[in-house]
Automatic annotation (TrEMBL):
The lineage of its organism: Bacteria, Pseudomonadati, Pseudomonadota, Betaproteobacteria, Burkholderiales. Belongs to the ABC transporter superfamily. Keywords: Amino-acid transport, ATP-binding, Cell membrane, Membrane, Nucleotide-binding, Transport. SUPFAM superfamilies: P-loop containing nucleoside triphosphate hydrolases. Pfam families: ABC_tran. The keyword Glycosyltransferase does not apply. It comes from Pseudorhodoferax soli. This is Amino acid/amide ABC transporter ATP-binding protein 2 (HAAT family). GO terms for biological process: L-amino acid transport. InterPro entries: AAA+_ATPase, ABC_branched_ATPase_LivF/BraG, ABC_transporter-like_ATP-bd, ABC_transporter-like_CS, BCAA_Transport_ATP-bd_LivF, P-loop_NTPase. CDD domains: ABC_TM1139_LivF_branched (cd03224). Residues 2-234 form the ABC transporter domain. GO terms for molecular function: ATP binding; ATP hydrolysis activity; branched-chain amino acid transmembrane transporter activity.
Length: 234
């Protein structure tokens, strides 16, 4: 469904990612793990068209999307739930959800989807008219996820959805990510919480200094010596 071939992104003199090749099959939950600065967020930003490529190509459903504008990439069916949530703080919860569907023209179905989001996240319904900036961190993460889903993506990318959340919220967000996949949306996720991520994923890639240094199924990566030593406490 998604294929990155030898993708590089350059920030000045440094390479944020360096000749990365990876793929995501339809229906999979694929995880990127690695230390801070390894290039995980940059990879997602490149897919979304937010970073120009210094080399390589990205294809989605057989179409080349590298070089396309971010809005065109959303139209192809890719949504991005960025690191740090990035909700629009002055807009209400409802307006944030509308922004998630801003490329859609089917207003009636969009309203239905918003209702479905409110069914899924009763906390957001209770706070529909409240400025998003006043929500707790966990609630903002729910909103960021719901906003991404409002574009009806076929592939959704989550960048560190558990970051900075209390343990009960972390569990909830991970349950939600798995539910999104069960409901038929393909997921590519960056996650610091490697143990939890590897347990729930189909496949994973380990990045170090902008390069993919290991890959395998979740079970293979949980058993991988290098992964265990660096990310799972031996
Ligand atoms: N806008 C930018 N300008 C310059 N350098 C950048 C920029 N964004 C990222 N980098 C650099 O590119 C490299 C990869 O960063 P990236 O944010 O993709 O890592 P990451 O694996 O997502 O780490 P983290 O978990 O800390 O977000 C790092 O060396 C980082 O300093």
């Amino acid at each position: 469904m998604l294929r990155l071939e030898q993708v590089s992104v350059r920030y000045g003199a440094t390479l944020g990612v360096d000749r990365i090749t990876l793929e995501v099959q339809e229906g999979e939950l694929v995880v990127l793990i690695g230390a801070n600065g390894a290039g995980k967020s940059t990879t997602l930003r490149a897919i979304s068209g937010l970073e120009p490529l210094a080399g390589g190509s990205i294809h989605f459903d057989g179409h080349r999307i590298s070089g396309a504008m971010p809005a065109q990439i959303i139209d192809r069916g890719i949504a991005h739930c960025p690191e740090g949530r990035r909700v629009f703080p002055q807009l209400t919860v409802r307006e944030n959800l509308e922004m998630g569907g801003y490329r859609r023209t089917d207003r009636q179905r969009m309203r239905q989807d918003m209702e479905r989001m409110f069914d899924k996240f009763p906390r957001l319904r209770e706070r529909a008219g409240q400025a998003a900036g006043t929500l707790s961190g966990g609630e903002q993460q729910m909103l960021a996820i719901a906003r991404a889903l409002m574009s009806r993506p076929r592939l959704v990318m989550f960048d560190e959805p558990s970051l900075g959340l209390a343990p009960n919220f972390v569990e909830m967000i991970f349950a939600l990510v798995q539910e999104v996949r069960r409901e038929g949306t393909t997921v590519l996720m960056v996650e610091q919480n490697a143990y939890a991520a590897l347990q729930m994923c189909n496949r994973a890639y380990l990045l170090t200094n902008g390069r993919i240094v290991s890959q395998g199924t979740g079970a293979e990566m949980l058993a991988n010596e290098g992964v265990r030593a660096a990310y799972l406490g031996g």
